[in-house]
Amino acid sequence: MPEMPEIEAHAERLAADYVGEVLTKLHPFNFTALKTAVPPPDAAYGHPVVSIGRRGKYLLIEFEPLTMVIHLMQGGRLLPDEKMSKKPRGGQARLTFGDDVPPLLLTEQGTERRAGIWCVAAGELDTSPPIDKLGPEAVGLPAEALAELFARQSMRVHGFLRDQRSVAGIGRRLANEVCWQARISPFATTKKLGLEGATKVAEAIAVCAAEGLEYERGRSDMSKSKDRPSNAHGQTGEPCPRSDEHGPDAIRAVEYSGYTVNYCPTCQTNGKILADNTTSKFLK
């Protein structure tokens, strides 16, 4: 799923071409694409795009009367639609503008059909779904504020980072990268991290987000998950990049049904191998 760096860079690319362009139509290809009934999208017809930005992992296309909040989910994309096929593959919705730019096509591959568009009235963005459920932006959050959030709930830091209600913008890849960068166990308990641990995590968030954003800004389109540079995420069995520093060790994995936690035992858990759901019975 695209995270903060991918969404931020994509918003910048779209803004360069579409800010100032006048919306003429929003056409959903199925009933799941448009998540709201009020205000209707046609309230924005005839209005130019004021801005294109991001909140958490959502794209925001702002018009004077309303803002369209777009979630790409796992495999969604919002791209210029040069072909304008009547039934585009994976097509969820098409936003049509004037004659100077091609329409934007929201696509989602697969069968889940969870990508979609929320129309939110002007001035109500922060108090309306889905944005009202988001925590503060993870990037730029001061260590002291992060420490306060850690102290409010006791949970594994990897889960905290992925929970958009706690902090917004981080997903599975960045959670793995942040924990590795901070040299903190992904299973560390947030309440026990304190200000010292929060400082490490806040600094790691800044580093990992900046690296991801630099990579995405160097591209002409949004990267695929497998293309994104990673030290730990998706590197199961590969040597830890710090092996020259601490001696040889490999990136390990804890597998869950929907995601994988990657970590280096030497860097992050004092050499302890974390229990893997698929293999822990053999470690007991």
Write structural notes for this entry:
This protein has helices at residues 4-18, 143-152, 157-162, 172-182, 190-217, 243-246, 265-268, 280-283; strands spanning 25-28, 51-55, 58-62, 66-71, 76-80, 91-96, 104-108, 116-121, 252-255, 260-263. It is of the alpha+beta class. The protein has two domains: 4-127, N-terminal domain of MutM-like DNA repair proteins (Alpha-Beta Barrel), CATH 3.20.190; 143-263, Helicase, Ruva Protein, domain 3 (Orthogonal Bundle), CATH 1.10.8.50. The protein has a four-stranded antiparallel β-sheet with strand order 1-6-7-5, with no helix packed on it. Strands 2-3-4-8 form a four-stranded antiparallel β-sheet, with helices on one face. A two-stranded antiparallel ribbon has the order 9-10. A hairpin with a 4-residue loop joins strand 9 and strand 10. The mean pLDDT is 94. GO terms for molecular function: 8-oxo-7,8-dihydroguanine DNA N-glycosylase activity; damaged DNA binding; DNA-(apurinic or apyrimidinic site) endonuclease activity; lyase activity; zinc ion binding. This is Putative DNA glycosylase.
Which terms would index this structure?
284 residues; alpha+beta; N-terminal domain of MutM-like DNA repair proteins; Helicase, Ruva Protein, domain 3; 2 domains; four-stranded antiparallel β-sheet; 10 strands; elongated; damaged DNA binding
Helix and strand element order:
HEEEEEEEEHHHHHEEHH
Distance between the termini: 34 Å
What is the strand tally? 10
Which percent range fits the helix content?
25-40%
- What is the fold-level CATH name, i.e. the topology of the largest domain? N-terminal domain of MutM-like DNA repair proteins
Question: Quick one: CATH class of the largest domain?
Answer: Alpha Beta
What number of domains? 2
Our count of helices gives: 8
| Helix/strand structural class | alpha+beta
Task: Please tell me the CATH architecture of the largest domain by its name.
Answer: Alpha-Beta Barrel
Family: Belongs to the FPG family.
Biased composition (Basic and acidic residues): 218-230
Catalytic activity: Hydrolysis of DNA containing ring-opened 7-methylguanine residues, releasing 2,6-diamino-4-hydroxy-5-(N-methyl)formamidopyrimidine
Keywords: DNA damage, DNA repair, DNA-binding, Glycosidase, Hydrolase, Lyase, Multifunctional enzyme
